[in-house]
Amino acid sequence: MSAVENESGRGSARAVALASAIGRFLVIAVTTYLGLLAVTFFIGRVIPIDPVLAVLGDRAPLNVVERTRREMGLDLPLVEQFYIYVKNALSGDFGTSVLTTNPVMTDIRRAFPATIELATLGTLIGSVLGVPLGVLAAVKRGSVIDQIVRIVGLIGYSVPIFWIGLLGLVLFYAKLQWVAFPGRLDVVYEYTFTPITGFYLLDALWQRQWDVFYDAFRHIILPAGLLGYFSLAYISRMTRSFMLNELAQEYIVAARAKGLSETRIIWGHALRNAAVPMVTVIALSYANLLEGSVLTEVVFSWPGIGLYITNSLQNADMNAVLGGTIVIGSVFIGINLLSDLLYRVLDPRTKVR
Amino acid sequence: MSAEVVQSRRDWLLSERPASRMQARLGRAYVAWRRFSANRLAFVGLLIIIALLVIAALAGALAPYSPTFGDLKNSRLLAPSAEHWFGTDDLGRDILSRILYGSRWTLYVVILVAIIAAPIGLLVGTIAGYAGGWTDAILMRITDIVLAFPKLILALAFVAALGPGIENAVLAIAITSWPPYARIARAETLTVRNSDYIKAVQLMGASPFRIVLRHIMPLCISSLIVRVTLDMAGIILTAAGLGFLGLGAQPPLPEWGTMIASGRRFVLDQWWVAGAPGFAILIVSLGFNLLGDGLRDALDPRSGDQ
After folding, report:
1. What distance lies between CA B92 and its chain's CA centroid?
2. Long-range contacts made by residues B15-22, C-beta under 8 angstroms, separation at least 24?
3. B75 FRET partner, CA 20 to 30 A, in A43, B58, B160, B302?
4. Rounded to a whole number, what is the distance in angstroms from the first to the last CA of chain B?
């Protein structure tokens, strides 16, 4: 890439390099999304031995079976079917849910804010607590805090989230009565409160309905705190290892030699340099919470996409299951790609040569 | 006298110039074992896994009651007591016995996923790394695509299509968990593919197939084992999650995730029905995590302090 690096050629060489980097990113993004669609297409059309039978049952007369097959486009070659499938998915058409009789996209749009609200609050809790904990663990290696971070991490990687959720309900709801029953709001508010964005906490704040805000908070805090713990386990462990890496660098010695205060060195210099990979880690943990919220939502009857997918699963509603899978998968992939891009943009060392 | 024998055996093991292949191998194993057993937590992990194996093998002899039949008349939902250490469930079955038998299903899932996913990853990774060029580009693109998928959600969709059951859950987990192994195997392959001994085998006329199979794959095994061990906890948790959602093992199989699911209905009053199996999952996952960390530090000191 640096072959044409004379004075006049440098600008155009940079442009070419930038264009090729963008091109590479686009190829990665497009193939990943196509891959996701290919897998869901495969799951929906190919794995069930006959989708027509799945719809009609095995007692339908032969001519009805034939007609349905044509109506569903199943007589077309697979490639063409996949093309139609991709086209529909891109326009947000995932078919109709058998269970709710709504278009799947309508259901998802209703459920999505609930999932996002939960995952966002969880990540917020995880990073606000996890980053300082990780930094302290790295600075005071082998200290009590370091041991705590280690244990928190080990348990976070080893405990079934749905089990902890159930025990949390037993303790904080049934025994101590600190938090509210599963769900997003008490029944009283379900009919008096009209959400605008679907993020209940924000909506209640916006409308100055403090009692609704308090109620929504009492509902969300346990599941969000739980997700927050898992994100904390991951974030603090990663922060610790990034910080250890930074603290071993020579510029830290230089900063000490200059006589800077230890606080300034740790929080100003080392953490700032560790910040770029931290962005990636926090983004990844956010994506993981979106996915991990499936089990949490089931435990806490939280009406998000995870609960929607599992309810549909139990009713063999494949359109809804695959629609939900594509939406969560797309957001998951999108966050992954974005954090990768952000990493490249933010860190001068990974700049396009 | 005996101290001398021990001393000379140690020297033999740690010899700089091993006289035979076996001596070299034993020596390396010895060094790894020394490093591993110095790590107390890793040792605890190993003990937990050994206990799991023993319990799974002897569940029939250890379990005080039948895992599938309970006394519906007298022993429904009893609290933990001297007679039933972990209490009984809604069908009057002894929970301890069910947990002991459940260890078999945990092992079953973990082993099956490992022997399906690890060889796929190993094959894809070594072929991509050794062949290079377009083969590498395409195989790695596929790997990265699968790596970018949300695992649990995809496993859900797979099981939804295949139908619930422990075998399908295993398949779904295996399908989504091979990519990291492929990447590791490829990285290892890239470090050795241009080395002299590979050149030597090439000159001797070995086919690419033989080189990959006999000379590259064995070198990837140790880092693969570490990674698989570290992934075991995740596999157990995913399988338990699928069981909890009613998609993995079906009742009355004493699978731990399924047991938590059936205890969920009365968790607020009889918490032990769901509590005990979750604790078993926690202990076993912890064991695999500790063991995996220890193995990583022992076999690969470079990546030690992460």
Report:
1. 32
2. none
3. B58
4. 43
Geometric angle at alpha carbon A179, from A175 and A184, rounded to 5°: 135
A209 and A193 Cβ atoms separated by less than 8 Å = yes
CB atoms A332 and B149 under 8 Å: yes
Give, in order, the Cα–Cα distances in Å from B76 to each of A188, B51, B260: 36, 29, 16
Please indicate whether, in this complex, the C-beta atoms of B146 and A35 are within 8 angstroms of each other: yes
Tens digit of each residue's pLDDT (9 = 90 or more) over B157-203: 888 888 888 899 999 999 989 999 999 999 989 988 888 888 899 89
DSSP 8-class letter at B88: B
- Cβ of A32 within 8 Å of Cβ of B306? The answer is no
In Å, what is the CA distance from B87 to each residue of A159, B67, B253, B262, B265? 22, 13, 18, 14, 16
Tell me, what amino acid is at B22?
Answer: M
As a whole number of angstroms, the distance between CA A160 and CA B235 comes to 11
Across the interface, which of B148, B158, B278 has its CB nearest the CB of A163?
Answer: B278
Q: How many CB atoms lie within 10 A of CB A100?
A: 17
Residue with tokens 């992954």: A336
Confirm or reject CATH 1.10.3720.10 for domain B27-299, answering yes or no. yes
Q: Is A96 helix (H, G, I), strand (E, B) or coil?
A: strand
pLDDT for residue A88:
87
- Cα B44 versus chain centre, distance: 16
Query: What's the Cα-to-Cα distance from A84 to each of A73, A74, A105, rounded to whole Å?
Result: 9, 11, 17
Tell me how close the Cα of A260 comes to any Cα of chain B, in angstroms.
27
Residue B173 dihedral angles phi and psi, to the nearest 5°: -70, -40
A41-54 as b/e: b if 16+ CB within 10 A: bebbbeebeebbee
Q: Rounded to the nearest 5 degrees, what angle is found at the Cα of B256, between the Cα atoms of B255 and B259? A: 90
Which residues of A, range 132-191, sit inside 8 Å of B by Cβ?
154-155, 157-164, 166-167, 169-170, 173-174
R_g of chain A computed on alpha carbons: 25
Is the Cβ pair A309, B260 closer than 8 Å?
no
The half-sphere exposure of A125 on its side-chain side, counting CA atoms within 13 A, is 20
B94 by DSSP, 3-state: which? Answer: strand
- Tell me the pLDDT tens digit for each residue of A207-259: 878 888 888 888 899 999 999 999 999 999 899 988 988 888 888 888 888 88
How far is C-alpha B154 from the chain's CA centre? 20
The answer to whether the Cβ–Cβ distance between B275 and A167 falls below 8 Å is yes
* CA quadruple B121, B126, B129, B135: dihedral, nearest 10: -70
